[in-house]
Write a structure and sequence with these properties.
Layout lengths: L7 H10 L12 H4 L8 E6 L4 H11 L3 E9 L8 H10 L6 E2 L5 E4 L2
Parallel strand pairs: 1-2
Antiparallel strand pairs: 2-4, 3-4
Helix pairs in contact: 3-4
């Protein structure tokens, strides 16, 4: 994709410099990383998957593991080139359950 040349360590270091000490970073594909968290609950997840299948997998995995009041943020929701993300979110969560954050991006909060 467009950002395939990003360096994992560079991104991690930049985030840590901005104060993300309590954030854990994982490199890999969703279907490789997420199964190791099958017994976990989440209060926040930031998805930047872009494609339909990746978002579908992540949503199905995370939705029931979110704590009440937990948020999933979709950075490409309604993006010009991320129609797969928008389609997955609308099908699996529902357009009316998403709060848009501007031209692109949106979030869902578990009730």
């Amino acid at each position: 994709g467009k950002y395939r040349d990003n360096d994992f360590e560079m991104v991690k270091e930049a985030a840590l410099k901005k104060g993300a000490e309590n954030v854990r970073f994982y490199k890999g594909k969703c279907n490789e990383i997420l199964p190791s968290f099958s017994n976990s609950q989440f209060c926040f997840a930031h998805l930047n998957c872009d494609t339909y299948l990746s978002n579908k997998y992540c949503i199905k995995f995370l939705k029931d593991r979110m704590v009440k009041g937990g948020m999933i943020y979709f950075s490409g929701y309604y993006g010009k080139y991320t129609f797969g993300e928008t389609e997955a979110v609308n099908k699996l969560i529902g357009r009316d359950n998403i709060t848009k954050t501007g031209e692109i991006g949106g979030y869902w909060i578990k009730q």
